[in-house]
């Protein structure tokens, strides 16, 4: 019994040190903050701000919640039908893999897109930098119903790896959440473009 006690104290210290070490590793894990930032890409944050701009569901504003792929809202209803079907099929595949695939933004009106661009210019301080993240009303594939933003991060990651089964491709290297139909089902996606201004 005495022998057990003399050994148990160093053991307890070792255990505490291990717990503190693991906790520190979790808290300080560098990619945790990166992932959190990706969960709230700029366009998404801005869409949340868009309440102040007076935009609603009719303009494709979807709020802060992740949207179910079957939601009956203009953001989904005004997507090109083949893109909408691809996203729904991908969501079914993702679900089979245990991943919940949701939509954070789909179709947007031109006025809403202009508002997002104006907000981005104010946020980034220059039109050039804003354009790396937000397209113009005439250039945005969201306005034409040809682009969809997918979340959360694990769903976007899943779509990067498996989306091409349904023709879905990541387009911009700086936007892991933005997908367009850029290949035939099972085909190869084109090379990534650096950002939306390229
Ligand atoms: Zn997008």
UniProtKB/TrEMBL annotation:
One Pfam family matching this protein: VanY
Residues of the D-alanyl-D-alanine carboxypeptidase-like core domain: 78-159
Superkingdom of origin: Bacteria
Residue runs in coiled coils: none
GO MF annotation list: peptidase activity
InterPro entries reported for this sequence: DD-CPase-like, VanY-like_core_dom, Zn_M74/Hedgehog-like
SUPFAM superfamilies per record: Hedgehog/DD-peptidase
PANTHER family: D-ALANYL-D-ALANINE CARBOXYPEPTIDASE, PEPTIDOGLYCAN L-ALANYL-D-GLUTAMATE ENDOPEPTIDASE CWLK
UniProt protein name: M15 family metallopeptidase
Organism listed in the record: Kineosporia babensis
């Amino acid at each position: 019994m005495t022998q057990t006690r003399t050994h148990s104290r160093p053991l307890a210290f070792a255990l505490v040190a291990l717990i503190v070490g693991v906790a520190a590793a979790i808290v300080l894990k560098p990619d945790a903050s990166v992932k959190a930032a990706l969960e709230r890409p700029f366009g998404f944050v801005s869409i949340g701000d868009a309440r102040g701009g007076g935009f609603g569901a009719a303009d494709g504003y979807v709020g802060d919640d992740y949207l179910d792929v079957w939601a009956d809202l203009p953001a989904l209803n005004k997507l090109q039908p083949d893109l909408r079907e691809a996203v729904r099929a991908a969501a079914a595949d993702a679900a089979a893999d245990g991943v919940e695939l949701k939509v954070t933004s789909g179709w947007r009106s031109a006025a809403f897109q202009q508002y997002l661009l104006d907000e981005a210019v104010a946020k980034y301080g220059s039109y050039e930098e804003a354009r790396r993240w937000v397209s113009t009303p005439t250039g945005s594939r969201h306005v034409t119903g040809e682009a969809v933003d997918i979340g959360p991060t694990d769903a976007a990651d899943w779509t990067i790896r498996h989306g091409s089964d349904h023709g879905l491709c990541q387009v911009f290297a700086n936007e892991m959440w933005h997908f367009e139909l850029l290949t035939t089902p099972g085909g190869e996606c084109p090379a990534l473009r650096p950002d939306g201004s390229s």
